[in-house]
């Protein structure tokens, strides 16, 4: 889960979007944050409030982005929790709807 004390940086947002293949408008749709605000944040001309940063980080985490903490002066970063194809399959499965069935095979 997202730690509310750890803000997301503009480079993390840009890199996270690139990893999951989202446009700014795609991230805006996932977060209900205006695209213009995300664009200004990523251009480093706006520092959004904590709630906005949390929404961006949460949406990217749910899409499969893992946020890496500062370690030994190397800076913060991002990587995928899953390979890109797995993330796409998960997103497809989530959109299928319907009821879940039994997993047991007799």
Compact summary:
By secondary structure, this protein is mainly α. It has helices spanning 10-20, 24-31, 35-42, 50-62, 84-96; strands spanning 65-68, 77-80.
Description:
The chain is mainly alpha-helical and 106 residues long. The chain is built from five helices and two strands; from the N terminus they run H-H-H-H-E-E-H. A two-stranded antiparallel sheet has the order 1-2. The protein is globular.
Characteristic key phrases:
106 residues, mainly alpha, two-stranded antiparallel ribbon, 5 helices
Radius of gyration: 16 Å
The outline comes out as: globular
If you average the pLDDT, what whole number results?
A: 82
% residues in beta strands? 5-15%
List the helices and strands and how they pair.
Elements: H1 10-20, H2 24-31, H3 35-42, H4 50-62, E1 65-68, E2 77-80, H5 84-96
Antiparallel strand pairs: 1-2
